[in-house]
Structures are given as C-alpha cells and as structure tokens.
Amino acid sequence: MDNSSGEVLLRVYKNEPTLVPPMVETKHGLYYLSNLDQNIAVTVQTIYCFKSQDKSNEQVFDTLRESLSKVLVDFYPLAGRLTVSDEGKLIVDCTGEGAVFVEAQAECDLVKIGDITKPDPSMLGTLVYNIPGAKNILEIPPLVAQVTRFKCGGFVLGLAMNHCMFDGIGAMEFVNSWAETSRGTTSPIPPFSNRSILKPRNPLFVNFPHNEFTELDDSSNSSINLYQEEALLYQSFNFNQERLNHIKTLAMQDGTLEKCTTFEVLAAFVWRARSEAMGFDPNKRTKLLFAVDGRSRLNPPLPNRYFGNGIVLTNSICKVGELLSNPLSYTVGLVQDAIKMVTDDYIRSAVDYFEMTRLRPSLASTLLITTWSRLDFHSTDFGWGEPVQSGPVTLPEKEVTLFLSSGKEKKNINVLLGLPSSAMERFKELMEI
C-alpha cells in the first residue's frame, strides 16, 4: 500500500483499453436524459473485490467482457456517448460503439488493498481506468470498466459510471443484471428505458422555493482558508447499532420529536458536527443537501426498474449559530421537514425550475450527504461469489459525505468524509459520544 512518504506501492499494469459493444445491433439515435439526470453529471468510481475461489479466475476477463456485451443490449445507452442537445442539455448519442474495457494485472495479493472503508484515492485509483487527456465528461464514455487480477487469484472490478445515466438504485440494477448474465443462471428483467415520463410540464410551473440551487455567501467562512492551507484527510466513522440508538436517545430526550429514523438523526448529527469542526461563522447560513428517492413519491410512481435518476435533491438552510445552540432534536426536525417537502408536486416543480434556469445546485457552505446504506452492493456475484469488499474509490467533491452500510447484517453505517486536517481532528472529538 503506502509507505511513510505517501508513495503508492500498489503497482498495476494495464493493457490497452478495448471497446465492448452490445452483442447485437441496438437502437441508434439520440436518447433523452431528464432534468433529474442533468444535475448530477459526475463520474462515480466504485470497486468490487473478489477473492480467489475454487473456480479459476483464468477466464475472468473473457467472462466479464462477454457478459457485458450481452447486458448492454438492454442497457444500450451505456454503449453510446454523451453530447449536448440543441437545447444545450446533456443527451446520449446511441452510437453503439461500446463501453471501455481494460484488462490489468497487479503484482501483489488482494490483501494488500487493506480496508477500503477509508478510501485512499491515490491507491484505489489505480484500480479504475481514467481516460487519458479527457478534459470534460463529454470525452469520457458513460461506462468504463477495469478488471485487475491479483497474484493470489483474486480480482477487482473497477467501474467508472456517469451519474447522469442512473442513480444508485439504477446503477445497482445494472451491475446486478451484468452479474446475473455472467453467472448465466437467469435472464435479467430488462430496464424501463423511457425517461420522457419526467419531461417538464407545459406550461412550466414552479411553485416551490428551490433553495437547493441557492448560493450561500461563504466569503467570511474559515473553510476557504482551511481547504487552501491544509491537507484534505479522509476518515471513516463506524456507527454500530448501539451508537445509533444512543444518538436517537439524545435526539428524543427533550420530548420534541415523536419519532426519528436512523438517517434523519445521523444526518443531523453529522451536519452539526461538521459545522462546528469547520469553525463556521455563527451568523452565516449553512445548507444541508441530500437526495430523496422520488420513485414512489411521484404520481403515478416511476415504473419498476426505471433506468435513470429517480432521486431529487432536498435541502435545509440554517444559521450556524442556531444549528449549534439548539438541541439535536431541532436539527433532526429540519431534516424531517426537508424530507416531507418532497412530493410529486415538488419534484415536478424542481424539473420545471431547471428547465427555466439551467442552474446547478450550489455547494457553497453546504454539506451534501449521499446515502448508499440501502444499496445492495454486497451481493453482486459474477460467478466468483459475493465481493469481500465494495465501495467508492473517492468522494466526488470536498463537500460530500457518504453513508455506507457495514457489518455482517449491513445494519451498521460507515460515515465517510474528507476534511482539512485541523477540522478532522475536531470532528473526531465530536464523534466520541
């Protein structure tokens, strides 16, 4: 792994990338991306680690390449390329040229990777393929896969997928369909691919304040100097059932709340702690952003296996001083209000708002929480058993915090974030409850 100087000791030798097109001819032409897809056009990198099994991994390259070719028939937009429509929005040109596939060899055993719950982007980054010289997302195919074999017989599947193609639920349905195809046990259920069901209304109608797009003033916040002057440290904090129950007790003890979920209380707890650790000005406003699954909140609900983003960002804005001087129940209440706000009407309004403004959500003075704790990353079996580890390579932005499930029953939650070094030290203290 790393030595004291930070040098990456995981050496990976990569072959030249090849293209994997769909096995048969698929639809060509332009494929519509909804306004919910437009807002999160970033590449998400994840890895899946598989240890050596009785089944030989000699065929792993061929097996994964052939099964990818098959599953791309149903998920054909992933074989296309992103471009810009006449309206100035992202759209997929379904060229059918294929996903990028890279074979690689590591000169060590899989155990050398260590525990990936605390990502080391410099090391784990060698397990995914980055398109050389790519200056923007239009130059990066929607799906890039790297398969790295290790000396022990284990291998790692590293994926780089653009978030505009699907949210976490959709991504897992794709990966699990690929895995089912690889095992050859069943024929995966095709996705629902028509995203035009989320087209803007005519006429457009914005009937909510969409503060997720509001740019807060952080000119006097110490965060600017901290990020410029100090190293960004990544840390993972594990919350087992005992700790989660303890935080819930803290939130409920003043009798303000009737109930609260694990996500609500943990989001509130982390928002407060990060704001305090960063030393934000008490008179400045801070924003919490997080995604809510809108599939069942839309009327009618999105179809099963909807291929696209069914999530919508909701928010809460509060002065830092109010956040820290009030009890934890107050912050949990803010999170609950943000969730309640997400109705069919709100989602349609958000779609129309983007159509009118083309604004992107602002991350100034913001904590953006992404929840992967309900995603079934751990059961993906390509024929070599379930992964021994899986998770992100890095966080896409410094303002992002990730909630990941952990433990044997996946009921514990790892909170992963990056902070400037001095803020991380204070954050660690605040986590000791």
From TrEMBL:
Q: Which UniProt keywords apply?
A: Acyltransferase, Transferase
Short name of one Pfam family: Transferase
Keyword ATP-binding found: no
**Does the record carry rRNA-binding as a key word?**
no
Judging by the UniProt lineage, the source's domain of life is Eukaryota
Q: Which InterPro entries match?
A: CAT-like_dom_sf, Plant_Fungal_Acyltransferase
Q: GO terms for molecular function, please?
A: acyltransferase activity, transferring groups other than amino-acyl groups
User: Of which family is this protein a member?
Assistant: Belongs to the plant acyltransferase family.
Report the protein name in the record: Omega-hydroxypalmitate O-feruloyl transferase-like protein
